[in-house]
Amino acid sequence: MVKVFIFNGSLNRNSTTDYLIKNFLNKLKQNSDIELSTYYLKNKEISNCIGCSRCFQNKECVLDDKDCFDKVRAEMLDSDIIIIGTPIYANNVTGYCKTFIDRISSWCHIFKLIGKRGVIITTTSNSGLDEVNNYLYKVMSYLGLADIEVISHQLNKDNINRTLDEIDYISSKLINNIKNNEKLKFSKLSEESFERLKEFYLSENANINEKKYWEETGMITCESLDKIIYERR
After folding, report:
1. In the chain, N or C terminus with fewer CB closer than 10 Å?
2. Is residue 193 part of a domain?
3. What is the pLDDT of residues 32-68, one digit of tens each?
């Protein structure tokens, strides 16, 4: 079974972002002869990060009792594909999307989602695609996601059929890579972040809790993200 986690940063129930995400999911199912399980997160109340830094100390988030976000994290960890979709507001992700990212930001220091594949889906009327796509690509890279694909739609410029064709192509490619057990491809950003963080955690100034995670998972002795995947197989 292939499990898919989807976050939709639009609170509009009839948004173009929602339409494209659902179309992508349908194409995944059509292009696959393997069983798919999906968890679609949208319109769920997510509390704003209060900056207590407990998550960076490997402690439970104090907000989880309020919004049960620990269950969301569990779903992400149990998934094979992570999809983040958002419309673009003022050349940025939506506030709802940023709140979601803030609540998993500590994972960017420990590549918590390594071994999973990522898909970005963005929509805009006129501008901001490059800025937002680059930002989400960075976030996914720092989380450890591989084979990151980007699907964008500009309402006042792009033909919807072209975007749907792109969705068909990427969904088919994604499923084939999984079925054929293709080697994961990490971005240059991911590898650079790994080298930078590894050097930091080998120093005396490292965050003790995060360094402990790197040591316990064996990442501290690995030469690259590829090596981590190899060691875990």
Report:
1. C
2. no
3. 777 777 888 887 899 999 999 999 887 889 999 899 9
Measured in whole angstroms, the distance separating CA 35 from the mean position of its chain's CA atoms is 21
Residue-wise pLDDT for 5-38, tens only, equals 999 999 998 899 999 999 999 999 887 777 777 8
Cβ distance 148 to 119 under 8 Å? Answer: yes
Residue 156 is part of a domain; what is its CATH number?
3.40.50.360
Does 198 reside within a domain? no
SS3 of residue 92 by DSSP = strand
Structure tokens at 225: 């993200």
CA distance 212 to 113: 18
Question: What does the block give as tokens for 228?
Answer: 């981590």
The answer as to whether 103 is a domain residue is yes
- How many domains does the structure of the chain reveal? 1
Instruction: Identify the CA nearest to 111 among candidates 176, 196, 41, 168.
Output: 196
The dihedral built from the CA positions of residue 9, 71, 103 and 110, taken in this order, carries a sign that is negative
The residues facing 2 across adjacent strands are 36
Q: What is the value of pTM for the model shown?
A: 0.94
Q: What is the DSSP letter of 1?
A: -
